[in-house]
Structure formats: C-alpha cells, structure tokens
Design goal:
- It is a single chain.
- By secondary structure, this protein is of the alpha+beta class.
- The protein has a single domain, classed as Aspartate Aminotransferase, domain 1, CATH 3.90.1150.200.
- The chain contains 3 helices and 6 strands.
- A hairpin with a 2-residue loop joins strand 3 and strand 4.
- About 25% of the residues are buried.
C-alpha cells in the first residue's frame, strides 16, 4: 500500500506545530549510494557524543514503509518509557523509540504533540539554551 499521503499529512502537521525545528531529508543511501533505509524527513538537531562520529542528526524522523508511517525519536531508547508517554495516542504501535501507524487521523493529536514536546525537551543538546516547546 502507498502511504505517501499519510507521510505528507504527518510531515505537514509536524512542520505546522513545530515550525522552529530545523528540517532535513535523508534519501536512505549510504556514502557509496547503496540504499540502507527508507527515505526520512528529519526534524530538530541532535548531537550524540560517540555516535555517528559526533555528526548532527535529527531528533525526530518520519518515514514511510510498506506497513505505514514511522515516527522515530533519536536518543531515547532505554531512557524514556515511550509506551507510557503515548498513553491515549490512539491506533498506533509503540516500540522503545518509535510510533508506528497507518493513518494519521487515528492518532490523538494532542497526545502526539505532548509526546513530541516532551522528547524534544529531553533530547535537546544545547547546553546553555534549555528549550521549552509550547
């Protein structure tokens, strides 16, 4: 199934509600041009010491695959209980660092906005500029 409309809806919603986040796009290819993952829209900036050579990556990634849309939160695995944070989000499956769904309309957007705000605050790497996302 083609989830391009759901991907577009999700990316537009995030851009509307979090317009201050830096945006990026990763085509899914490694340095030698081999496809290693699905194309991903990135939001925010995160630098993790010792990960990816200290190069910046995004805080939130949005991608489509053959089963739906995935929101990936970078830097939270085993640090935040995403399933607890997502309580009441609607028809989605939750892993340690991802929210997966097939239709954006099935999500409680207030819960999703709270989840994203919480994770952005948690993963902010600007030491002298604490973020308060409203």
């Amino acid at each position: 199934m083609d989830y391009s409309n759901e991907l577009h809806t999700t990316v537009q919603w995030i851009a509307k509600h979090f317009p201050f986040l830096e945006t990026s796009f990763f085509d899914g290819k490694n340095a030698s041009g081999k496809i290693v993952t699905n194309p991903t829209y990135g939001f925010g900036t995160l630098i993790q010491a010792g990960v990816n050579g200290g190069k910046p990556t995004f805080q939130l990634g949005v991608s489509a695959n053959s089963t739906g849309i995935t929101l990936s939160f970078i830097g939270i695995r085993n640090r935040i209980d995403l399933s607890e944070l997502c309580h009441g989000i609607g028809n989605a499956s939750i892993t340690k660092y991802c929210i997966k769904f097939t239709t954006f309309k099935a999500l409680n957007q207030n819960v999703l906005q709270h989840v994203i705000k919480t994770i952005l605050n948690y993963t902010d790497t600007k030491k002298n500029d604490p973020l308060e996302y409203h």
